[in-house]
User: Fold these one by one.
Assistant:
Number 1:
Amino acid sequence: TAPVRPAASAGPPASAPASAPASAPASAPASAGRPGVPGLGDKYFPRAGNGGYDVGEYQVDLRYTPAEQRVTATVTITARATLDLSGFNLDFRGPEITELLVNGLPAPYERRGQELVVKPPRTLPRGGTFTTVVRYSGRPRPSRHATLGTYGWVPTKDGAVVAAEPDGAPTWLPVNDHPRDKATYIFRVTVPKHLQVLANGDPHPPVTRGATTTYVWTERDPMASYLAMIAIGRFSVRRGRVADIPVITAVDPQFASAGERLHTTTMEVLRWQIRTFGDYPFQTAGGIIDDPRLGYALETQERPVYLGFTPDERFIVHELAHQWFGNSVSLWRWQDIWLNEGFATYAEWLWSEHTGRETTAKIFERHYRQPPKSPIFNPPVGDPGVDGLFSSSIYVRGAMCLQALRAKVGDEKFFTILREWAAAHRHGTASVPEFVAFAERTSGMRLDRLFQTWLFEKGKPKR
Ligand code: ARG
Ligand code: ZN
């Protein structure tokens, strides 16, 4: 989907690199086109994403044999060229490629680190749609990182599960891996017939042929690649409904006793969040508890995954709040992770207040008593670096920033800001400078000092 550049200055436009790549001399005839840049220039993940095209849809046809942990996949990517493209890149760190076609013709390609460099047989005209088919086969492996942990494609005892934030989607999928280029997805996953598959979005009736069953799930709303999820294994599945929204939850047999509570809490929280944040942005909802002992959760679109533990209410509130803040309103750049984690954590505080426990003001005060060197204050949340993306300050100080905003503008304006922010950027992308401008417009107050202090000041912000 076409990335929309935010009004406030927050990075280069996706399709207009500041400098042409070395391989495209400025004198090249227009008809020859030029290659898209190999990254979108995100300060945190410079190689993530690729310029020169916008993906509209990923169609993911995948077979999995858990015994060998083997994937055989055909991914069809429908995209629109935003330049006359002589070549383009995808992000892919997955198994061996067996075939690659562009518009039905075999295309030469090269793998350089995570870049899959494709040379289409003909220049792809600007504005035109083209399809890329990538076939591959082998054993995908998760990414492992000192602070980000294990993520991406993760084999489980009875199958596999995907949790790819921030840059784990290329472990299993050839992809334009940046939340700026959201797209719709069709998953068609074939597994041995004793297993089940869940994914983002809407389920279609499974079809069994011989020894295998094929599950189809469709994500009809734009989705960032790190939120794409499939879960393969044995599950006990529950279905329900909140307003008009089908709710599907599933638990691995090891967590069978947590299934009912996951389901009822998910529905109850959703009802309350719709009242608090406005219309639910997607077609379905739910959640999955699966077995790898990763100890974290991910807000995978429409259906978060809780990995290796039974989530308490707060965890469920957090992941569901991300559906509004992070999934529907996505990051223009990773530096602005506060827009995801600060908001989802503040939702936990609101839930505490709503259920008659500690108020958000009390929670704030409790944290504010911590010493300046505490990890809840450091690093500052406005530019935490890749290693700080999920540090406790992003969550705690991030939520404190919203409490400071609420104290300054008052309850009525504060909740108007939350709801209208979600509505204004629904299914889009946004940046921190835009949020600051939006909060100032909506409240009619100057807030630059407040945000400067809470997002950027070193140590404990002074109030
Ligand atoms: N966004 C997730 C949350 O809800 C955290 C993801 C952590 N990712 C990771 N690779 N450790 O807080
Ligand atoms: Zn979160």
Number 2:
Amino acid sequence: MRILVTGGAGFIGSAVARLLVLERGATVLVVDKLTYAGDRRSIHDCEGKHGFQFLEADICDTARMRAAMAEFQPDAVMHLAAESHVDRSITGAADFIQTNINGTFSMLEAARGYHDGLEGDAKARFRFHHISTDEVFGSLGETGAFSETTAYDPRSPYSASKAASDHLVRAWHETYGLPVLVTNCSNNYGPYHFPEKLIPLIILNALDGKPLPVYGDGSNIRDWLHVEDHARALVSVVEHGKVGETYCIGGRAERRNLQVVQTICDLLDQRRPGAAPRRELIRFVADRPGHDQRYAIDCSKIERELGWRQKQSFETGIAATIDWYLANEWWWRPLREKKYSGERLGLVTEK
Ligand code: NAD
């Protein structure tokens, strides 16, 4: 397979690129603008490997996307490039509207022109796979779970921009016959996760003896999935998913934010005992505006239809993630030094 991966220097895109290049022997072109969240060091394992190429470009540049597709001749586009941090979308939504909505429009137009020009098997094979989030569905109460038929109800600038992009993708299928696939996944964690996101922020602040900011009372619930399990789900969808369908992907691992933070503290205390238990570093901070209370995913469709199963439980995955951060300071330390430890976003103000 020849696969064009947008956002392949980011957290999930780099896991997809590694899986495709190192395990599947696919030919991969990563297209990435290298924003603050993109880092070529995240795909260092792929660099120099047979069939791996990198293009530094903005997905909003439709002419460049058209040219990239014409030259690379992909069998599939896996579209992950996005602005992805909810807190940043609240302090400044412009980049989210530009990349997540206009950028997806640009990718769809480039893919439409490319697909229209294909013939025979190449045309039948082509897929445009749009990678999205469960946040488009809004917030759940105590019970229930999101599924492929849940109505959209986005509540943050980030989730609204992703919802808009999902609608565009479906419209390009219905209107122009573009062979699309859409996936909506729950919260990911794992290696190469940018240090501003909850799990790496807590691991690294706890290691450095800094305050561990927890929004509100820490009762918000997220469903966590290891990024390598998400990457395997995405590859199975692009290979075997039914055109025009949506697949929800989740970890069946609902945890309160406070529980996640406490688990990280306890695992770090075992690995690197400090002067005092790290739970003492926890600080409850003013809640995020419009903070969704609970997310949960019913992933029975992808399990039933494509036979996907996650391999890592939250307990084994989080322990492995902590060990990865302990072993890979070369990756995260320079990013932390650029001041992404949470202060910039006001996250360490006590409530
Ligand atoms: P990320 O922020 O780690 O990576 C995004 C990548 O996109 C970066 O490499 C960045 O440089 C690149 N990018 C941004 N704007 C670009 C542009 N205009 N042109 C080209 N490249 C650009 O994000 P992530 O966590 O890896 O998320 C990837 C995708 O998965 C996103 O679409 C996100 O909405 C979705 N998703 C994320 C999660 C999660 O928990 N992180 C869960 C479900 C879905």
